[in-house]
Amino acid sequence: MPRLNSAPALHLALMLLGATPAMAMAADPQVSTEVFVEAGDNPSFKLQQAPAIESSTAPATPPDTFLQAPMAVLLVAQLDELGHVSNVMVARSSGLREMDRAALAAVRQWRFDPVVVEGIALHVRVRVRLTFVPTAEAPPG
C-alpha cells in the first residue's frame, strides 16, 4: 500500500468535502511562558525568585499539530553558573509527545541571568511552564 504525505492527503480530503485548506489549517499557537521555583528545587539554598530569561526561542510547533484547546507542558531545567541550560526534562507532559519535544528543544537553547548568592554563581533548578494556546483563525473569505 503506498504511503501518502499527510499534507497533500489532507488537501485532497478537504477538496472532496468541499472545504478549502485554509479553513482547516491552524496558525501556529501562541506560547506563554512562566518560569518559577518551588520549595525543595534547590535544597542547599533558598532561591526567592526564578532568574530572568536573557534569551529564548519559541518552540517550533510541529506542522501537523492542530490545537483545539490550550495545552501546557511543565519542564524542570538545571542551569549552570553562567545561566545556560545544562539539563532539562519533562515534569508534566502536555499529552502530545511532539509538543513536549518542541518545548524541550526550545528551552535547551535558552539563557538565564546567572544566580549569584553571597558573591558566588550557583547551579540552580527552575521550572518552566509553556502553555500553547490555539490562535483564532480569520474567518474565510
What would your notes on this structure say?
This protein has 141 residues and is an alpha+beta fold. The chain has helices spanning 6-17, 21-24, 97-108; strands at residues 30-36, 53-55, 71-79, 85-92, 111-112, 115-117, 120-122, 124-133. A four-stranded antiparallel sheet has the order 1-8-3-4, covered by helices on one side. Strands 2-5 form a two-stranded antiparallel sheet. Strand 3 (71-79) and strand 4 form a beta hairpin.
> What amount of the residues lies in strands?
25-35%
Output the strand order for the largest sheet: 1-8-3-4
Question: Which value, in Å, is the CA radius of gyration?
Answer: 20 Å
The residue fraction in helices comes out at 10-25%
Structural class: alpha+beta
Major sheet description: 4 strands, antiparallel
- Give the strand tally: 8
Question: Key features?
Answer:
single chain, 141 residues, alpha+beta, two-stranded antiparallel sheet, 3 helices, 8 strands, 20% helix, 32% strand, disordered N terminus
Short note summarizing the structure:
This protein has 141 residues and is of the alpha+beta class. Helices cover 20% and strands 32% of the residues.
Topology:
Blueprint: H1 6-17, H2 21-24, E1 30-36, E2 53-55, E3 71-79, E4 85-92, H3 97-108, E5 111-112, E6 115-117, E7 120-122, E8 124-133
